[in-house]
Write a structure and sequence with these properties.
Layout (H helix, E strand, L loop, with lengths): L6 E10 L2 E11 L4 E5 L6 H9 L6 E6 L5 E4 L11 H6 L11 H9 L13 H13 L5 E5 L7 H12 L4 E5 L3 H7 L2 E6 L2 E5 L6 H15 L5 H38 L10 H6 L3 E12 L2 E12 L3 E5 L6 H8 L7 E6 L5 E4 L12 H6 L4 E4 L2 E4 H7 L16 H14 L4 E5 L7 H13 L3 E5 L3 H7 L2 E5 L5 E5 L2 H8 L6 H12 L16 H28 L4 H4 L1 H34 L3
Parallel strand pairs: 3-7, 3-8, 5-6, 6-7, 12-18, 12-19, 14-17, 17-18
Antiparallel strand pairs: 1-2, 1-4, 8-9, 10-11, 10-13, 15-16, 19-20
Helix pairs in contact: 7-8, 8-14, 18-20
Length: about 600
């Protein structure tokens, strides 16, 4: 006989502005259950968690909680009001708390690397999320309701949280955009779709196929209903199924791109040593040579080189504070390295989407945000009707004319992405773009970035998203080393090898390095590059700089719209020379990097 549920909802209804969000929801949570709660942005997941927690906001239905059951919540936006310190905030979750000095609070804060004396109002996004997690965990509740627990967390903290929840004895419900997190931790899925909850008693990995089958059956069964329901069914079902099918093909194409990138990346992150592959990849977007950066005594990046080409998708990973955003800003020319150089390709037009996500006017509509008073929006140079473009980003027709303030947080992020990806560009720079996005929107973003004809630089802690998208991964471990690996996060783990197991092991290794080597009768003679190679290494940067200047001048000349009609021969000659100059600079860059690597190998 199954144990009675800890929590249960029956016939729960909730309306927002006349729109039904929850329409007769039934669900139950048994002891020890591990559930994922999934659904589109705006479907009502956060609202459902609040009702499960006991907030009296439902318009109808009943909630049952076993007497004495302990419930903890993790909201997307924690409220630190009235708490003088992090320890005071965490201790407030304990009914029998001894205050901020409670041993349970101190032990958990130490485990999560948090200073309990700090003012919570001054925490960074990642620190605030860790503090809120500590408050949810400290009382060891019977049920935890966790809303986007991995937002703003770095990969080591996500892996720590996975281990913590993997050993958890109580029940929990997870709302998360991180598919890998859900696949690892949950054993059943609650799908909130169009106001009702369906349950799948299998892991999250089975969700896509199961939900697609349901949508396909509904699309067949509803063909006799009115036009409005047909449109809703088409929007919610056919487009999502088609997108998933296309993404399977994109993953196969990504495998081929990774093979090309693997040929371009040399040992320990020294990039691009294959001339043929470089020429095949098209125009060069970024060349970084031996760049280093430090702030005070902390080394952020040390002696990093890479070449990034058009159509490359490069992910940057590492712990918070390791320097991912700093390296990203150096690569796009926003800040100068202390040593080394960064050269950007001609006519580079980057669009940057950072973690802050520029605010939208809450009184404007999505239509106005994208197209102002026009009917069409210019999407990377092509005219698109604004409604067609909004549908691609999973907006319903009626939402186009509703104020932005009525949209959920995830829907606003979707609108910001739609606006940013419409802008003319040949490089997209994205800092944590997956925060607050649901699975279908992540599919959509992956599709847009896979089809994008320029270069993508991406900072992300979403392991599944990295595996599905990037051609190479630059890993920063926090010690100044930045190493580029071909492929996504799983490829990085496979190529990186085991880390040092402990600080003691590192010290022992250092001690062994310090022991003098046995004396030899004679040391081998130190090898050198030779006169011709030394001279080439010195002269190539000047040649590259001259070629870049020539390419800029040729592009300026060819930008004259009247040149072709005025002097067709000159136009043809300049076009031909531009192609030659671009090939020459690619070859010179490759030769320089090969010689630089050889010089380092020889110890010169």
């Amino acid at each position: 006989m199954a144990p009675p549920p800890l929590l249960a909802l029956s016939g729960i209804r909730y309306h927002l502005g006349g729109q039904p969000i929850l329409d007769g929801v039934d669900l139950s949570i048994a002891p020890g259950e591990r559930l994922s709660l999934v659904g589109r942005n705006g479907a009502g997941k956060s609202t459902l968690l609040r009702i499960l927690a006991g907030e009296p906001i439902a318009d109808g239905g009943t909630r049952f909680a076993q007497p004495g059951v302990a419930i903890a919540t993790l909201p997307q936006e924690p409220d630190f009001t009235g708490h003088a310190s992090v320890a005071h905030y965490v201790a407030s979750a304990l009914a029998d708390s001894l205050g901020p000095s409670d041993y349970r609070v101190e032990a958990l804060l130490e485990e999560m690397a948090l200073d309990g004396t700090r003012d919570p109002a001054h925490l960074s996004g990642g620190e605030a999320r860790r503090a809120a997690l500590a408050r949810a965990l400290v009382a060891e509740p019977d049920v935890m309701l966790l809303d986007e627990p991995t937002n703003h967390l770095d990969l080591p903290t996500i892996e720590w949280l996975e281990a913590k929840l993997g050993a958890w004895k109580g029940a929990y419900v997870l709302v998360s955009h991180d598919r890998r997190f859900l696949s690892t931790l949950t054993r059943a899925v609650l799908w909130l779709d169009r106001g009702i909850v369906r349950r799948l008693d299998r892991g999250y990995d089975a969700f896509d196929e199961w939900s697609s089958d349901i949508l396909e059956r509904e699309a067949t069964e509803r063909h006799k209903l009115d036009r409005l329901i047909e449109r809703e069914t088409e929007w919610a079902g056919k487009s999502i199924r088609a997108r998933r099918t296309r993404n399977e093909g994109r993953l196969r194409a990504l495998g081929e791109l990774r093979k090309q990138r693997r040929q371009q990346i040399g040992p320990v992150g020294r990039a691009t040593i294959e001339t043929g592959a470089a020429e095949q990849s098209g125009s060069l977007a970024i060349t970084a040579r031996n760049i280093s950066k430090r702030f005070g005594d902390k080394v952020i990046v040390r002696d990093f080189s890479t070449r990034i080409f058009r159509r490359d998708r490069v992910g940057l990973i590492g712990p918070n504070g390791a320097g991912k955003t700093t390296l990203l800003r150096m690569l796009i020319g926003e800040i100068e390295p202390d040593t080394g150089s960064v050269k950007l390709g001609a006519n580079l037009m980057p669009v940057v989407i950072d973690q802050r996500r520029v605010a939208l006017d809450p009184d404007k509509t999505p239509w106005e945000i994208l197209a102002d008073r026009n009917d069409h929006v210019l999407v990377r140079g092509q005219q698109r009707h604004v409604m067609t473009y909004l549908r691609e980003y999973l907006f319903r027709d009626e939402q186009a004319r509703q104020p932005v303030r009525t949209l959920s947080g995830g829907e606003r992020n979707r609108l910001l992405l739609a606006k940013a990806l419409a802008a003319p560009s040949n490089m997209l720079v994205l800092d944590e773009p997956t925060n607050d996005l649901d699975a279908d929107t992540l599919d959509l973003l992956q599709e847009a970035l896979s089809d994008y004809d320029g270069t993508v630089l991406l900072v992300s802690h979403d392991r599944d998203f990295l595996d599905r998208l990037v051609t190479s991964t630059i890993a920063l471990e926090g010690d100044g080393a930045a190493i580029e690996y071909a492929g996504g996060y799983s490829d990085y783990l496979a190529q990186r090898g085991p880390r040092e197991p402990s600080a003691a092991a590192s010290a022992e290794k250092a001690e062994k390095r310090e022991k003098p080597a046995p004396a030899r009768d004679s040391a081998p003679p130190k090898q050198r590059l030779g006169y011709k190679r030394e001279r080439a290494l010195a002269e190539l940067p000047k040649k590259i700089e001259a070629l870049q200047a020539e390419i800029t001048a040729l592009n300026d000349a060819l930008a004259d719209a009247s040149l072709y009609s005025r002097d067709p021969k000159a136009f043809a000659a300049k076009s031909s020379r531009l192609a030659s100059a671009q090939a020459e600079v690619d070859a010179a860059e490759t030769e320089w990097l090969e010689l630089e690597m050889l010089r380092e190998e020889l110890g010169g």
